[in-house]
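Reply to dn_fold:

You asked what the input looked like. This is it:
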Amino acid sequence: MKTTLEVTAEPLPQDLAFLSGSLSAFNDADVGASGRKPLAVIVRDEHGDIVAGISGYTAWGWLYVQWLWVDERLRGRRMAASMLDTAEQEAIGRGCHGAWIDTFNPIAEKVYQRQGYRPFGELPDFPAGRSRIFLQKKLT
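and this is what came back:
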């Protein structure tokens, strides 16, 4: 089989879909179906504008929080804690036993630790001068 390598900053959606489907099929055959399901918690103001939110998914019994954002006007009011509680309860309802999140923001790391998340890994200088911290929590 003759092959070529292609590098692109703008992959075609159908190429990404093919890769995702192929890897999912491989993983399903290897360790069983992930049951991957998106999960979002959205906070809106009185005008319907998004002022905070979480985006992630559940799979293989775990909640992964990919994005967590709070508008500056709501920071310091336990909005992140409230959203995490809500996401975790939904994850438990889906049969999850654990949750994980990562950050390179020291303030966010403290927020997550107050919520019961504990560090389990670190990538130094990601980005330069900071460390990306990976945290997990057992859900009950």
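The first helix runs from residue 13 to 31.
Hope that clears it up.
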